[in-house]
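Marked as duplicate of an earlier ticket. Keeping the data here for the record.
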Amino acid sequence: MATYRIMHLKDFAWCRHPGCESGQIHLRGSNDGGNKMVCHKCGNLTCVDCDTLYFPLHRTKDCATITAGLKKKEEAEDQGTAEIIAETSNICPTCGASIQKISGCDFMECKLISYPQSPWCLLTLFPQAEHALERLHGKGSRRKKEKTLR
């Protein structure tokens, strides 16, 4: 409980050195400068204004430039993730969530919507009741194919 209260104080800052996981109260003007916090655990510097490691970023750039660069990098990563999701998943016709089939049959049910619904086909997005099983999937088609291969 005490840790929760401390980390929500106005002057609390986390050390941004990988693997440190320490935080402390940093009062402006202490530790050799206003925005530089020296970690009591690992001794590394963190910029409390832009919440990044002080070195090597602040050798040549100010906080605004660093923040803009990090935001641009994050947006590019988000765009890449969105592209991967679009390539590898389908959209649930019931709720619009992205879904991905790993194994099993092609009929799905939306678990986010609470009202009763019929399962729908992942390939055609038609409800099972309207789906022509014989024509599209061929009832028992796997067995027929196995017999013809032998």
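See parent ticket for discussion. Residues 2-63 form one domain.
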